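agent> Task received from the user: take the single chain below, predict its 3D structure, and emit structure tokens. No templates, no multimer pairing.
agent> Plan: (1) validate residues, (2) run structure prediction, (3) serialize to tokens, (4) report one or two observations.
agent> Step 1 OK, no nonstandard residues flagged.
tool_call: predict_structure(input=
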Amino acid sequence: MDAEKPVDSSHVETAPVVMGSTDAEPAQLKADPATAHNVPTMKVAVANHGKSLIYCLFFCMSAVLWGYDMQVNGGLLAAPQFRAVFGYTLPNGESILPARWQAAFNMIATVGGMIGSLLCGPLSPYIGRKLTLVVASVISSGAIFLQFFAFSRGVLLAGKLVNGIALGMFLVTACAYCSESSPVALRGLTTAMVNLFVVIGQLLGNCLIKAFGDRSDTFAYRIPFAFQWLFPALLLTGVWFCPESPYWYVQRGKINEAKKSLQMFQRGESVDEWLHEIQETVRMEEESAKSTGYMDCFRGTDLRRTLIIFGVWTINSFSGVNFVLSYSTYFFEIAGLPTSRSFDMGVGVTAVGVVGNICSWYVINVIGRRSLVPGMAVLTVIVFVMAILDVVPGYNHSIAWGQSALIIVWNFFYDLTLGPLGYVICGEMSSTRLRSHVVSIGFFTQNFWTLIMTITVPYMINPDEGNLRGKTGFIFGFFSVIACVWTYFYLPETKGRSFEELDHMFAQKIPARKFSTYDRGSDRG
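)
tool_result: status=success, residues=525
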């Protein structure tokens, strides 16, 4: 560690102002939500730390490719030219894609995402967040090249797999960078932006397929593939102007570089308090454990933190999000809606998701992370109502429209709570020492369950298999009830807490329901 001494902040008499408290004196943490932890309002925080917000937004932009790839997959399978090139033609002239190849095409990027997430765990702490973003952008650029010039199924699948590795690295890097480069008041907002850009990517994917999917040449699918090049190009151009994570510098003893990095994140204010907090957090974690690896994520207090992240991403998949987002258009069709209206409704689902994400900024910053408790309750009720409508006698188009509307409403509340909060909780819950590793485990979990859902959901809803249609909601409703119980008892409130405070609270084994009212000063008599 650098010999430079941390700044003395013992003269501060009030509770932590922006960044949280240090061990120099007891923190007076108020239970009143209006004044909890003396964290400034979002307006004040944006005014003082606008540059931090801009840099985090830049890193979040990489998440567009995750959502875009997710949405383009299903759209391309319906494009006539795509089926003609990568499928086979029946005697009647109809082009067909082999079912097994369709399944592989839908799943291969998710497998790549699992690999990329795990690779990012040890790589990012070694080379830093910026260079990790550079590596992921280069990998993605090469993978897009393979997809654009693919002449066979094998080459196309290889491109999808390699691109999936980059996509997994993008999500881990964006989430870790935002959680480490934002002041406490903006941390929830910036990490929630990751999900916003994922949904924007889904919306772009729907729009590109609608615009070019009916072309009579190979550019029907080549243009949607080529569009992805825009984002690695922007990332590779702009990343050099972004500061590195200050935590990464402090963990390597580069205190002067950390201070310069912090000065780039805020306007005209002293960074000494922020730097001191980072040094204290790193010092405490290094004293408690010397090694950093995946096995350390399952030891001591880090085990609880890892299990919370694992639980949140498990809830995410078992809430029914894969059914609603990936199969909404298909569900609209089998529910009896016209094909043209089905696609428009699919676009509407993702557009409403963008609105939900923007509204989530208020929920995350004002209500907090445990807003997931009522959020899950609402999602559970909606999915059960959708299932009940499917068993109502005299099922007709009016009921189908009602179910379709419920899917859109469900997606709004998902992107208001569970969707963005998954990223926020993933970025905040881990210790700074193991952040890359724990976040990697989180996104590996997300990809793992996505893979499972990609395999099983078609068997639930397809007319030639389970033919459950809206009754699929009973299955996800059952899991959602379990999720409601879990979030109530096991999800801590981390709003307004510095990482140093969270380390202390996990070390003291504070129950999840008491995080929001915990007063650290009470530990000291």
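agent> Step 4: summary for the user.
The domain at 291-519 is CATH 1.20.1250.20 (Growth Hormone; Chain: A;).
agent> Done.
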